[in-house]
């Protein structure tokens, strides 16, 4: 690995990141077990403020770094690639000591990363792998293929083909299901879809699950920028072209993200499929445990979501940053899975959980991620 600025700080810095707790998604305790705090400036580039998840991530990373003694330059790219490129350029020109980047387009930052490398600025990719560059030093994320497995598993549970404990359910099918994926410029979308299809393909092959539209490739089912409106429009088009405008049976929809899920649900409700699962709404999955979707799950409207505790992700980013600025190698628990097209990026993977109606309190409220009042209101 190339030389790291502040390597000489290793004898001075000592930092222990405190476990997170707090009020709502992404909140941090703001406490550190450090004997001495770090010094330096860290640039944090987040993709958007249109998703509550990314606002929470940005706040959690910033507060964790500040608790460790670092100065933070946090910027949101507003889903605009040139804006994020310019923000990162400005951080490099300000001579930040390290960059943490959640990219809008994982293929669009090669120039910025080369400039960072030329300035000996380490780069940590945050939850979205940055592709086609040798200048990505570390990656913190969740086990994204397993997230896809969990999404597909929850769909099978919703259809009655599996029980929550993984045992075989009583339902036999066949069930009509449609598939949605995330944005093709986000490397995670590929991992989610791969895990989901690995799980669903045997059921498709035996005819228990039927994708009536025939759209089963990621290119056919992708949702650019993960946008709710784009997903709603595609669902509306599928209902018109394949399901008689809502008069024919649709049993489930694989959705990779809660915003997409809400767009799908809106299209289904508008087409007359019912307002809840109990009165005929198809089973719809999700991801990120956004509070609006958690309420929908509590109300029996959305079936499931995947809880990725982004407080832990923020903690891990802070831990990795601190290691770099001590001149050390961050701890990786995966050195094989994440090939960005140029190199395999050392990674730290975190685990996720499936959220159903009956475990919202256990997973989300008891952990302090959301409060009971927030779940009831659907607002953070």
From TrEMBL:
Its main location: other. GO terms for molecular function: carbohydrate binding. PROSITE patterns: PROKAR_LIPOPROTEIN. The keyword Signal applies. Residues 42-329 form the Periplasmic binding protein domain. Residues 1-21 form the signal peptide. It is found in: Cell envelope. This is Sugar ABC transporter substrate-binding protein. Pfam families: Peripla_BP_4.
């Amino acid at each position: 690995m190339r030389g790291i600025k502040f390597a000489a700080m290793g004898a001075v810095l000592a930092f222990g990141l405190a476990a997170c707790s707090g009020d709502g998604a992404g909140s941090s305790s703001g406490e550190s077990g450090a004997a001495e705090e770090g010094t330096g400036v860290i640039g944090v580039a987040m993709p958007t403020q249109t998703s509550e998840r990314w606002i929470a991530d940005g706040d959690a990373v910033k507060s964790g770094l500040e608790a460790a003694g670092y100065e933070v330059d946090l910027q949101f790219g507003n889903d605009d690639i040139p804006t994020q490129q310019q923000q990162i350029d400005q951080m490099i020109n300000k001579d930040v000591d390290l960059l943490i980047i959640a990219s809008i387009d994982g293929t669009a930052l090669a120039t910025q990363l080369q400039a960072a490398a030329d300035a000996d600025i380490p780069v940590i990719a945050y939850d979205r792998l940055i592709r086609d560059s040798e200048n990505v030093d570390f990656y913190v994320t969740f086990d994204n293929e397993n997230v896809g497995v969990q999404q597909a598993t929850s769909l099978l549970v919703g259809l009655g083909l599996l029980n929550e404990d993984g045992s075989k359910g009583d339902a036999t099918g066949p069930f009509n299901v449609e598939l949605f994926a995330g944005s093709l410029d986000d490397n995670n979308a590929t991992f989610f879809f791969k895990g989901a299809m690995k799980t669903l393909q045997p059921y498709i092959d035996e005819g228990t699950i039927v994708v009536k539209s025939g759209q089963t490739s990621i290119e056919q089912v992708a949702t650019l920028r993960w946008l709710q409106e784009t997903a709603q429009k595609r669902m509306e088009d599928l209902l018109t072209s394949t399901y008689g405008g809502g008069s024919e049976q649709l049993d489930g929809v694989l959705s990779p993200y809660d915003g997409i899920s809400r767009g799908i649900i809106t299209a289904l409700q508008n087409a007359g499929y019912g307002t809840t699962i109990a009165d005929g709404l198809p089973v719809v999955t999700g991801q990120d445990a956004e509070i609006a979707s958690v309420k929908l799950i509590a109300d029996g409207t959305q079936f499931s979501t995947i809880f990725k505790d982004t407080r832990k992700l923020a903690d891990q980013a802070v831990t990795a940053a601190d290691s770099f600025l001590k001149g050390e190698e961050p701890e990786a628990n995966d050195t094989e899975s994440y090939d960005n097209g140029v190199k395999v990026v050392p990674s730290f993977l975190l685990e996720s959980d499936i959220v159903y109606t009956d475990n919202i309190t256990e997973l989300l409220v008891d952990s302090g991620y959301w409060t009971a009042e927030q779940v009831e209101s659907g607002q953070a």
